[in-house]
């Protein structure tokens, strides 16, 4: 039994019914015909009414839009369109000619009409022209024929719409399909004004909200865009789309779109995750939202205890979706698949029905032999946890947030782990709680890998494997902080396995860019200061020296000791130049407030300046890094980012390891490198007494 609404909601203000459903509009592998048919069944069951066919990487939808369908393809499309009809779902065929169409060439217009006529012959009644994600510069021929790009698009769209007999559903996706793309803004966008004024009134317009992936969509923003478009838009919602990041999947509820929007919109279509099966939650919760407001479809469960939106509670909608999804996970999708749940308990193994090799009957271990492997099945709590870990683009679920906060606290208070302070007991209790949460993730993974519905599992597999691994690293790190870890399990040990440095080349690039670390927003309250990191240039020399001197003055040293300079001091004071690509400065609104330099090969200077490291150490850690950040920068992330970028540069120079020289009086930097986690102290006789050398392999 589904707890979901089954009736379709009445039409909103304006003409025609409220369009609700799914747009298959993402980049990458399109869904299969079977999956689409399954989608229609679900849409019907949940009271959604539309499917927009727009798979970006389907050859004949976009790149080869002019090509007609072959008889085999035609057969498949005919079957699909008829399946949609059977399930009361409006099949809208979209085409994206914008990559290379010449709007002013009549042959192109003919090609477009011919293609859509062919699809009309397949039984399709509703159409869409999409002009998203294309070059905005017109070719010379079009520039001659049309005053603007908007005029070109509108002209061809109106023509095609009329040619097809003004279908009841005809959708247009503008090139500026969200507020962020409008110049200078929505109200003053000449592109949107042309579209709004000149597109025939029977054509509806797709809109993704303030951004491509909109965190929130407000009533005001929709009223604003509607005034320019001269009609209520159909939302193309990318809230659950994951085609832009292979590590992310979105299993959180449809959220941050007030139900007050419903009467102000022509419809909502969600463009969800590329993986078909995990979209159960995205589509189910959208359906609950569409059916939520007063006068909507019938509801088995009362929504509306949330102060923010009396019509819809994302939490309740999520729980409804997850409990329905759990049932689906338990239903087998392959022949002979029911044997696994029967093995749930050892006692029940006698009743196992699925033994294909009949010669010996089911295997039953004898006394002293291995018992049969018993695995549990996932629970609703497992699914809730899964959804929390893969929640929404701008928000982690509650458990994920708690885990991040806990880990952050454990790192910040790591000195309490070993020393006996007032916080020691709290540290260990929190470490235990963190460990329990990590364990729950591992158990969830184990139970999910036992689900009878293997198609769902396989769509989830890479993601749950990735999070299990990520949690494993964090767990080992906390154990190390608590003094119980195996050095081999450390996050950044000397020779980590490849899963100790994740993300591949793209991850390397990201760590080198100034924006890296911005998502610390998940853990910390939003920072008010804005920092920008940029390469060092010769004009910065004096500023850097000033920071170096200021930091030296601030260090609490034994007054009688006059210290000979270290290599790091010579680098900071400008007596030595950093290696190429190895010098960064950070600025805040006042000016330069920190720097980070590296030498890819410190051997030569090591001979000239005070010796903190032996030759043997230099063999293993030939590079040096130095960082100084003024005390007014209380946020550690700019320094972390600079060090991250320098380590990437040093690594790409072929170096095996990096060391840093830290005066014990420089508490700030000592603390910084200790908390980084990757640098470990080297105990050496060669180092001056007041200097600690820390190093990391690359
Ligand atoms: C987009 C694309 C869409 C893609 C999404 C998320 C629209 C109108 N177009 O800009 O195909 O899946 O971003 O990456 O949203």
Describe the fold and architecture.
The protein is built from 22 helices and 15 strands. By secondary structure, the chain is α/β, with parallel strands linked by helices. It has three domains: 298 residues, TIM Barrel (Alpha-Beta Barrel); 133 residues, STAT, domain 1 (Methane Monooxygenase Hydroxylase, Chain G, domain 1, Up-down Bundle), CATH 1.20.58.240; 158 residues, Aminopeptidase, CATH 3.40.630. It has an eight-stranded parallel beta barrel with strand order 1-2-3-4-5-6-7-8. Helix 1 runs parallel beside helix 2 and helix 12 packs antiparallel against helix 14. The longest helix is centred in the last third of the chain and has 28 residues. Bound molecules: 2-(acetylamido)-2-deoxy-D-glucono-1,5-lactone.
